[in-house]
Design brief:
DNA binding, L-fuculose-1-phosphate Aldolase, Aldolase_II/adducin_N_sf, Cro/C1-type_HTH, seven-stranded mixed beta sheet, two-stranded antiparallel sheet, ThiN, 2 domains, HTH cro/C1-type domain-containing protein, alpha+beta, 12 helices
Length: 298
């Protein structure tokens, strides 16, 4: 009796880790950095990159594994992907290979009695909340990187600060929205991001996003920027749907009224009120797309 987990340990992991170690080294990471990312010893990394570990031919021929390694190496090397997300993505990939894929075939080869057994077991859900949360955080990190590398973005930050938020697909509360703790601030002409994104740390911008979704919007991300007539005009001129809402009303009814005629609004804004700074809200499918919208209007 041989468990499929043994196939994973004996065949998949040596092949996968050696490929990923090679890919990370090609992207300029040291053996020590690779060891930290993979959670293995530096001597093990040395064996992988010097070809001292056998790779399984069937796995090497699998295009999906090649694509996974490239995606993980790019994300880990750039800092856009956390080690947790890399782990979850790999776990999901392993489960896919176990269900009718190359690992299932290797298991059948090792245990011929399994041949023809069609039942599948839902060991891992590829749409798990953990996977979705890690992907959402990664998207916000990529969006923040766009903003950090956008010359002049600091001029778009309102006095109250900006925040870049993205929610889970089935978001119901602020706890389901990822954002920057505190706010993105203009510090001596440079956009300053105080910490990595987390869930449940934005109240106002997250509330606006949730209100828009309640009103029928498909948007999953919002970035708030400084209000200016030229900013609003530039957004309209770019072909985006721009709608004003009432800052003196509560967020949910105000946004609902603004989206009543067309929920597919790209931009919401208000011109302020007593003690309320005028602000523009850029809506989009993800954090990267709204960050790129901000870049376009500079």
């Amino acid at each position: 009796m041989r468990f499929i987990e043994e196939i994973v340990v004996d065949d998949f992991l040596p092949t996968f880790r050696s490929l990923l170690a090679d890919a990370l080294r090609e992207r300029g990471l040291t053996q020590s950095e690779v060891a930290d990312l993979l959670g293995i010893s530096q001597s093990a990394v040395s064996k992988y990159v010097h070809g001292d570990v056998a790779r399984h031919d069937d796995l090497l021929a699998h295009r999906g594994l090649e694509e996974l390694v490239k995606r993980l190496a790019d994300g880990l090397a750039d800092g856009d992907m956390s080690s947790v997300q890399a782990l979850v993505e790999t776990e999901v990939f392993i489960r896919e290979l176990e269900h009718g894929g190359v690992l299932a075939q290797l298991h059948e080869d090792a245990v011929p009695e399994l041949e023809g057994y069609d039942d599948e077991f839902a060991v891992h859900d590829p749409d798990s909340q953990l996977r979705s949360a890690e992907r959402t955080l990664a998207s916000v990190r990529r969006g923040l990187s766009v903003l950090e590398n956008t010359s002049g973005f600091a001029t778009l930050i309102p006095a109250v600060g900006s925040n870049l938020v993205q929610c889970l697909p089935d978001a119901e509360s602020i706890e389901d929205v990822a954002a920057v703790p505190g706010r993105i601030l203009d510090v001596k002409g440079r956009a300053t991001i105080p910490a990595d994104p987390e869930f449940g740390v934005s109240e106002h911008v997250a509330s606006l996003l949730l209100a828009a979704r309640t009103a029928g919007s498909d948007a999953r991300a919002v970035l708030n920027v400084r209000y200016d007539d030229t900013v609003v005009a530039a957004l309209r001129d770019s072909g985006r749907t721009v709608v004003e809402f009432d800052a003196e009303e509560s967020v949910e009814p105000a946004v609902a009224a603004a989206l009543a005629d067309d929920p597919a609004v790209d931009v919401l804004y208000h011109t302020g009120a007593m003690g309320i700074e005028p602000v523009v809200y850029l809506l989009g499918d993800d954090a990267v797309s709204v960050a790129e919208t901000a870049r376009e209007i500079l």
